[in-house]
């Protein structure tokens, strides 16, 4: 697995890997050309590591990520160039600059521990589960900076919170508090600041230890592929997957631990 670098910390606790944006003195601002490729390699390394079952993404200190590095944006504007490094274009919905998170065959949890602005709001949207600290602020301030809804979030937001709310939030560029974000369905739960990291880790460990990694891997793919399938296609895919479940070690263990009233010992096979 890729080790930590100057901008990220990578830690593992049991089956849970945590990637922390580690630029607290800069409010965890995002430098696209330096941080984007490293972040993707780090996530993919966690995906390839069989000992990791859940990936958590969070920020160091009081902020999650307060957007793109302003100096990088200023330099790009002066040069008239796009600050985001070139990425070969393809037609795979789940292999774009940040949507690759949706193709990772493990749950990806975003722990929004503080302000999330701009690109700091894009990252959570492409995660599978989002938890926010009670003091967190979420801002899609693109229109207030003369920018557009970046990296496909215009497509994604309407599916997450409905078209009217997505339209209003993106057009206004206003900031949402954690509780309003929860009412919108933008975050799954809000936890108190003083217990936030412990609460997120409790949820992550629950996923890592008490459900079948094999089932979660397939369910995640089913849910995202369902955004571009007919109902009949989704039914047929589920029927095809069922045969593999019947033969799997995880189904055998799922039945055994239930009948024996003991903790599960899933292998992911």
From TrEMBL:
Regions that span the bilayer: none
One Pfam family recorded for the sequence:
ECH_1
Q: Where is the signal peptide?
A: none
Family matches, as InterPro entries:
ClpP/crotonase-like_dom_sf (IPR029045), ECH/Chromodomain_protein (IPR051053), Enoyl-CoA_hydra/iso (IPR001753)
Q: Which domain of life is it from?
A: Bacteria
The family classification in the record reads: Belongs to the enoyl-CoA hydratase/isomerase family.
Per its record, how is this protein called by name? Enoyl-CoA hydratase
Source species: Delftia tsuruhatensis
């Amino acid at each position: 697995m890729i080790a930590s670098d100057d901008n990220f910390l990578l830690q593992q606790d049991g089956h849970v890997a945590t990637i922390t944006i580690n630029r607290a003195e800069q409010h965890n601002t995002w430098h696209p050309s330096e941080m984007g490729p490293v972040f993707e390699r780090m996530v993919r390394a966690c995906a390839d590591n069989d000992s990791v079952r859940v990936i958590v993404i969070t920020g160091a200190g009081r902020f999650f990520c307060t957007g793109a590095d302003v100096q990088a944006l200023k330099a790009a504007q002066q040069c008239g160039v796009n600050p985001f490094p070139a990425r070969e274009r393809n037609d795979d919905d789940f292999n774009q600059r940040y949507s690759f998170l949706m193709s990772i065959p493990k749950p990806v949890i975003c722990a929004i521990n503080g302000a999330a602005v701009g690109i700091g709001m894009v990252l959570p949207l492409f995660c599978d589960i989002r938890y926010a600290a009670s003091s967190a602020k979420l801002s899609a301030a693109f229109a207030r900076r003369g920018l557009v809804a970046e990296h496909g979030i215009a497509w994604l937001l309407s599916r997450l919170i409905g078209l009217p709310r997505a339209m209003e939030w993106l057009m206004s560029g206003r900031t949402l508090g954690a509780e309003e974000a929860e009412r919108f369905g933008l975050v799954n739960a809000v936890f108190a600041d003083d217990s936030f990291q412990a609460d997120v880790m409790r949820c992550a460990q629950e996923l890592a230890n008490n459900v079948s990694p094999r089932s979660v891997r397939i369910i995640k793919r089913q849910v995202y592929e369902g955004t571009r399938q007919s109902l009949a296609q989704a039914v047929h895919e589920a029927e095809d997957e069922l045969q593999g479940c019947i033969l799997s070690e995880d189904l055998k263990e799922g039945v055994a631990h239930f009948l024996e009233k003991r903790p599960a010992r899933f292998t992911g096979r």
